[in-house]
Design goal:
CATH class: Mainly Alpha
Protein name: Auxin Efflux Carrier
Radius of gyration: 18 Å
Shape: globular
Largest sheet: none
Strand content: under 5%
Family: Belongs to the auxin efflux carrier (TC 2.A.69) family.
GO cellular component, one term: plasma membrane
Helix content: over 70%
Mean pLDDT: 84
Membrane topology: Multi-pass membrane protein
Number of strands: 0
Main location: membrane
Length: about 300
Amino acid sequence: MTGAVLLALLPIVILTALGLALRRRGFLAEGFWPQAERLGYFVLLPSLFFHGLATARIEAVPVGALALTLILSTLAVAVLVIVLRPCLRLDGPAFTSVFQGSVRFNNYVGVTLAAGLFGPQGIALAAICNAAIVPTVNILCVLVFARHGTVRLTPRGIARQLATNPLVVSSLGGILVQGLGLGIPPGLEPALRALGAASLPLGLLCVGAALDFGTARHWAGPVLAASTMKFIAMPAATVLAALCLGLHGPALTTALLFQVLPTASSAYILARQLGGDAPLMAGITAAQTVLALVAMPLVLIALAAWVPL
């Protein structure tokens, strides 16, 4: 399994590095990248989630155990970060960045990995993971921003942030279509499938273009704190929850991989919008993207001996 993970990581590394090179060399206009991120976030990735959940064959997938494992482990780490905040000695905006770095994950990398490991079943598993974690993480992060960010959100503002999140809306929409057995109209289904397929390479290129390794050197402490939570506390909490709920096989592997994914570049956008420490967030994202290439295989190696992956 570790070899399969490394093989699945290879195209992710290549596309991310290509995005970094294209941005550094100015091959595309600087204005392209924010627009590409916007297209992916509001159109392409929601299409992937909606299509994946609406068409997934989930009869043999332990949906309840998988979703509950992810939600419980995410909540456990979120509580741990909040409890440890006095030890971090950070101001409010900086704490929001550490919090996001501890619980937020990169959807593009997760879906690409799951699809590379398990094919169509992996896409279904990834869609369920996203349906469980995306609302959970966004609710937690918006609440933390409301408490510690410089932009004070009213309850109405918090509700609006959650209700208009395209990833939350598309995930819930796909679950609704799946639950009602409606299906996607024949003419619309291939269009959504094509849009979803485009989200992965474009998203990984944007991930690479957004990396800024220079910022990571200035905040060694917060970067270390967020990465410790992400790559040690989160997988440990995930395995404990999975063992309690009887989760195993490809579902456990996918859950574990999703919980050791690096922070998404969208965390930087949220930090700018809601009064977080955006430069620190960029540093955490860059550092975790590199660390994840080592952390994901190591987590599987450390746990494969005693956990039925």
